[in-house]
Design brief:
alpha+beta; 6-stranded mixed β-sheet; 4-stranded antiparallel β-sheet; 6 helices; 25% helix
Amino acid sequence: MDGSNCFLSIKTFVFCIFVSFQTTANDLNIMKYEYGKRGWDGTKYEKASIYPLSDKYFRHSTSDIENINTKKILNVSLELLLNKKQKIILSTIRLTNHGDKSIFIPEISFSALNMNLLITTDDIMLVYLGGKFDYRGNFERTDWIEVLPGEMISLTQVLNDNYEFLPGKRFYSISSLEYTVVDAKWFTDKHIFNSLISINTSRINDCHIKKGTPYVLKKRWMCTLDIKNKGMSLVDLLEKFGFHNAIDDNAFKIRTNQVFIEIDGNEVSSLYEKNKHR
């Protein structure tokens, strides 16, 4: 082996160790702080600062091995791609169905108007500052995106329109949050269960006594009736069918690969700079 090839091999080896170290370090770090929110005093935004992590801390509930195995079972790929372009950082999430049956992903989660990514550096998590999805449905089939066999759907967004990066050069760990995906049978089971709930739901009348009502009046004049369904709530129903916890055989949780990237917060555009003249 000549000197140039030997030097190249050493550089490659050192680079692999460095990447491995970065991966391990980010995986082991416990998030303690968050960064991104700035107050508005009426004329300008306050200076950015790092502050203690709030209670709303997003964590992955499944391990890397579980995530890989689930995607193999579903025969799908879910990839995260990052691209630096001038003063912006583009992220693209691609979901590809390699199987022979349709899969479904909630429209509310696979949207640019939703927190899709977990971005951290050391023990600091970046706060999502983007828009919110105008949700109008009731988790019916029409509220899900169907991904046909052999089909690929993608979601591209500008990261620095949704997150504020710290000043200076830092390595960031970026991956998607967990997406719930279901198969067609999930909707059948949900419909059957929903029908059973509606059949077995009893209605109850709550009597709220009107203030200042004489007790000599008949009960129907004393009460403001509040008729309620005594049964399972929508949240309970969704959890029963795994929308939140993906606990049944027809609902699954998956997320993208983890990407490590160096970003200089001084060089990317800031959403606060765009909005300072609002």
